[in-house]
Amino acid sequence: MNIFRLGGDLAHLLAIIILLLKIWTTRSCAGISGKSQILFALTFTARYLDLFTNFVSVYNSVMKVVYLAAAYATLYLMYVKFKATYDHNHDTFRLEFLILPAAGLALIINHEFSIIEVMWTFSIYLEAVAILPQLFMVSKTGEAESITSHYLFALGSYRALYIVNWVYRYYSEGFYDMIATLAGVVQTVLYCDFFYLYITKVLKGKKLQLPA
Amino acid sequence: ELGFRAKDEL
């Protein structure tokens, strides 16, 4: 473990908590893409299949359970409890356009052709594009609540910090994983225009408005 | 050449 990866995990945990708090305290999931949340739940499910078979550390197991529980709790809040506030009309991204290519690529480019490894690779490719429905929804509505932009900033920062972690691990222990690293770069690049808007607008107290 | 998966990462 290094401070970059710990920082990344904490940013990820913060994002998940911000989202749950936003939905719970405002009793509304307006502006949140349920489709992205479905992709995140799918990502954690495919990635943590070895939760009970491959013990790494208490921290690792606890975080996996927290991520899985939070992902499914968010789906419950969005599609059951506060279903009436879910904005179907603006959350229209076709999930099959993301799931099928990620699954196909995972069967072709992976570290090892085994169930666990292919599912892990699928989760890596899927996570890279999982935020697209959310970013698409923000571009369609043209704006986002500030709490939602804090959520996106924390979520985007998590994988950016993981990239720093991979660079650090390459130079400190010669470790590298081209699949996770390249997918992580794609994932982080998708946030770039949002990061720009967040830093130039939201941090100055303005609302996040996308140029129409 | 693709390296290998980090089993300790989330």
Automatic annotation (TrEMBL), chain A:
It is found in: Endoplasmic reticulum membrane. It is a multi-pass membrane protein. GO terms for molecular function: ER retention sequence binding. The keyword Transmembrane applies. Keywords: Endoplasmic reticulum, ER-Golgi transport, Membrane, Protein transport, Receptor, Transmembrane, Transmembrane helix, Transport. It comes from the Eukaryota. The chain crosses the membrane at residues 6-25, 62-80, 92-109, 115-138, 150-168, 174-199. Belongs to the ERD2 family. This is ER lumen protein-retaining receptor. It comes from Hyalella azteca (Amphipod).
